[in-house]
Amino acid sequence: MAGVQVANLSRSFGAHTALDDVSIDFADGGFYALLGPSGSGKTTLLRQIAGFDFPDSGRIAIGGESVERVPVEKRRIGMVFQNYALFPNMSVADNVAFGLSVRGEAKATIQSEVQRALDLVQLGKLGARRPHQLSGGQRQRVALARAIVTKPRVLLLDEPLGALDKALRVDMQIELKRIQREIGITTIFVTHDQEEALTMSDRIGILRDGRLVQEGPPEEIYDRPKSEFAATFLGDANILRGETTGTGIRLPDGTAIAAGAGATLAGGATASCAVRPERIRIGTDSGTSDPNANMLRGQVSKRIFAGNNSTYFVDRNGQTIKVTVQNTGVEKLAEGQKVVLRWSPESTVLIAAS
Amino acid sequence: MATTRILEWCGRLYIWLLLAFLYLPVIIMALMSFNVSPFYQLPFEWTTEWYASLWQNDQLISATWNSIEIAIISTIISTVLGSAASLALYRYEFRGKKFLQALLFPPIAIPWLITGTAMLIFFFGVGIGRGLFAILLGHVALALPYVIVVVSARLQTFAPELEEAARSLGANQWQVTSRVTLPWIMPGVIAGGLFAFAVSFDQFVVSYFLSTPGQTTLPVEIYAAIRKGFTPEINAVSTIIIVVSMALMLLTARFFKFGGEK
Fold first, then answer.
1. Nearest C-alpha of chain A: how many angstroms from B123?
2. Is B213 inside a domain boundary?
3. Is there a contact between A85 and B171 if contact means CB atoms under 8 Å apart?
4. CATH code for residues A236-352
5. What is the largest distance, in Å, between two alpha-carbon atoms of chain A?
6. pLDDT (tens digit, 9 = 90+) per residue, A195-228?
7. CA B255 → CA A110, A150, A271, B250, B252, distances in Å?
8. With contacts defined as CB-CB under 8 Å, which chain B residues touch A72?
9. How wide is the angle at C-alpha A350 spanned by C-alphas A347 and A353, nearest 5°?
10. How many angstroms from the chain centroid is the CA of residue B27?
């Protein structure tokens, strides 16, 4: 087991910059998500760590050893591919045995290691099957068993759950997490699914246009995004733009918004405030509340019911503010109703203009 | 109900007519190889005389062995070279690759008569001349594009992640090729090999140009024999070859399931 250090990594393909000076430290035993839209460079970064492609500049170290020029077959990594890439001409057991067999391990060792890996992913009895006889979830488990049976230093997952349906995906998230804890392997997985990133990982790195936008624990990124992009890509956020007052902003119409979190900025510059929809309280009354709270008035333009919660789209001077409320079955606001929105400064993140 | 039955009946008739069209001449030839009359005269009288005299016809027998040898050797050479070329074209990007690929296919369309003439002139120019070796070289050259086309088509269905997965598990280039890529393209390699065998074993035009009186192949020898005067021995040797090659084809089809497994 080993940590992975990526320092100042850059890679271009022709005129396209896929990775631009990316540095991340993946601690030993951690579970990391690389999150970003398609074309953000997350897969390129994973392939660089795997060794399928070499960087133009920068360093990659696995367990302290520089590997940026070491080809993939010598890096001792385990990788799970998006479509699993199981060998169709081999049985499940032979698929899992492949990595041990090409290393020339003894037959008996291979057999017991393969069985152990298959037991770990709960496929102990399916060794004789062919990949095409398995369900999507089972193939996923075989791919995982094959990747970890060689005891790699780091486990790399490329959108591993992308091809599964929703219910199975949730099961596999739990399963993957369990297996990762059990063997304690440093795991880096690429996803464009923010929910997956939030629920599974210890730390998240958000990428955009080949750059690392923000990196940290899920709660930290969610509660204190450093850019409008991070705020809106990980979870939903309302962005209010205006002129900074140092501890908040003043909207163009003069309304002051106080921010209790985020950057400290010099007054006068343009900046924005991010507020999560579930942090805003929505009501029809105007008085009796925390005098420090931020307050805006608006009109409900639309309500979307989603079972356990509802999202109100509130129109204020042409800007739509989303408010999500738990469905308590008590109060329903009609479309067109005038409402008051309140939220605390602590729920407001000040973000410098990018 | 009635119409479906008529349609079904028409379909069956069609298949039988098609098979008759394909096999009738061959069956008649096979029957005549057992007929006493050398001039296709009826009534049919059973004999194995022609097979016995074929056994005495050294020229025809040596030409048959030449054909078989050349077909097998040229099949092996062109299948190995062609498959390797297909893999290289699949894996690597290099300057002029598109141009090279485009150049591989016109030889299939160039009439064999012209290729044969060109080879004859070329082999004379470089000192190879005519004979079995020249025929072998010619057959390899003729078969190569077929093998490359068939194997490349199979490679199009290969998922490149499979090679990446194998490499990530520590396999070197040779292990990746022999354990992952080759098993997948094997049906294509076998099909390419069959093409190569057929191109060589059926080959008349190019062999005719490159053969010498002592060093010749079966099709050329049969042609020469017919020109001198038809003998039923030719029916006999043809029948043997048909039986053997059909048995080979059926065996291959049975073991390799054309198109391959998913």
1. 44
2. yes
3. no
4. 2.40.50.100
5. 78
6. 888 888 999 999 999 999 999 999 999 999 999 9
7. 30, 35, 71, 9, 5
8. 164, 167-168
9. 150
10. 21
- In this structure, is residue B20 part of a structural domain? no
Listed range (A50-64, A340-354, B143-157) with the worst mean pLDDT: A340-354
Residue A79 to residues A148, A315, B27, B145: CA-CA distances in angstroms? 8, 47, 59, 37
Query: N- to C-terminal Cα distance for chain A?
Result: 38
- B18 located within any domain: no
Q: Is the previous residue joined to A252 through a cis bond, with omega within 30 degrees of 0?
A: no
**Lowest-pLDDT choice from A295-299, B143-147, B238-242:** B238-242
The CATH number given to A4-223 is 3.40.50.300
Any idea where the domains of chain A sit in the sequence?
4-223, 236-352
Q: Residue A150 and residue B170: Cβ atoms within 8 Å?
A: yes
Helices B132-155, B58-91: crossing angle, 10 deg rounding: 40
Residue B23 belongs to some domain of the structure: no
How many beta carbons lie within 10 A of that of residue A138, not counting itself?
Answer: 18
Are B168 and A78 a contacting pair, CB within 8 Å?
yes
Distance CA A145, CA A55 (A): 29
**Could you give the CA distance from residue A144 to residue A149 in angstroms, rounded to a whole number?**
9
Number of domains composing chain B: 1
**Structural domain boundaries enclosing B78:** 57-256
Residue B84: alpha-carbon gap to chain centroid: 19
Min CA distance, A107 vs chain B (Å)?
A: 17
CB B206 within 8 A of CB B111: no
A334 DSSP assignment: P
**Six-digit token pair at B33?**
């190889």
Looking at CA atoms only, how far is residue A80 from chain B in angstroms?
Answer: 8
Bridge partners (DSSP) listed for residue A179: none
- Number of C-alpha atoms within 13 angstroms, CB side, residue B76? 5
Contact B43, B31 (CB under 8 A): no
**CA dihedral of residues A110, A113, A116, A118 (deg, nearest 10):** -50
Q: Which residues fall within 8 angstroms of residue B19, CB to CB, at 6 or more apart?
A: none
Q: How far apart are CA B73 and CA B77, in angstroms?
A: 6
